[in-house]
Write a structure and sequence with these properties.
Blueprint: E1 5-8, H1 15-26, E2 29-32, H2 33-41, H3 45-52, H4 54-69, E3 74-77, H5 86-92, E4 96-101, H6 104-111, H7 125-143, E5 146-149, H8 155-168
Parallel strand pairs: 1-3, 1-4, 2-3, 4-5
Helix pairs in contact: 1-8, 2-4, 3-4, 4-5, 6-7
This protein binds adenosine-5'-diphosphate, shikimate-3-phosphate (S3P) and magnesium ion.
């Protein structure tokens, strides 16, 4: 693996899960941005949103992303909204960016009932995720070096595809 790899996509795409599999397969560090924000602040993302609001979360997310994306040989799993922050989009330029493209219906089935994603407190999860994909899809497409269909169950196969493409990319 020559370049750092960033995983982007809406909630439920499997960025966190595939990130873990991929980093283990490559034998490199994993940084899950949401987990790192929570670790640094000592509270959950839901708490940050509820107490300080989304803008405060986006600022913390940006700090962690920009720093992580500057590291060598790392797998970075971003939160779904991160690429919409201009400083993060800029930082994504130097790395191998993978859009895990999932359908809203599959994503909804994966995140239903978890309650730890404050933007998904919505009665109609499929509609909400469809709106998110509509708002973000063009940005994901613009930033992506690789697009991986993330609807299927086989996280290992997806990690293998990403590892091969990252190996080949310069
Ligand atoms: N390819 C997959 N097949 C089946 N379940 C998956 C897959 N990818 C993720 N999941 C499950 O879906 C949920 C959301 O995955 P996660 O990795 O947290 O997504 P993201 O970080 O993109 O929001 C988790 O419970 C995870 O175990
Ligand atoms: O879509 C978003 O804006 C968000 C997605 C979440 O990450 P996942 O994509 O891992 O769910 C997390 O960063 C936060 O709740 C905001
Ligand atoms: Mg995640």
């Amino acid at each position: 693996m020559s370049r750092t790899i960033a995983l982007i996509g809406i909630s439920g795409a499997g960025k966190s899960k595939i990130g873990r599999t991929l980093a283990a397969r490559l034998g490199v560090d994993l940084l899950d941005v949401d987990a790192e924000v929570e670790r640094r602040q000592g509270r959950t993302i839901a708490d940050i949103f509820a107490t300080d609001g989304e803008a405060a979360f986006r600022a913390a997310e940006s700090d962690v992303c920009v720093e992580a994306l500057g590291r060598p040989r790392t797998v970075v799993s971003l939160g779904g909204g991160a690429p919409m922050t201009p400083a993060i989009a800029d930082a994504l330029r130097g790395v191998h960016v993978v859009w895990l493209r999932v359908s809203p219906a599959v994503a909804a089935s994966r995140v239903a009932g978890h309650g730890d994603r404050p933007l998904l407190n919505d009665d109609d999860l499929v509609a909400k995720l469809t709106r998110m994909l509509d708002a973000r899809g063009a940005t994901y497409a613009r930033l992506a070096d690789q697009i991986v269909d993330a609807d299927g169950d086989d996280a290992d196969a997806k990690a293998q595809l990403i590892a091969a493409a990252a190996e080949a990319s310069v």
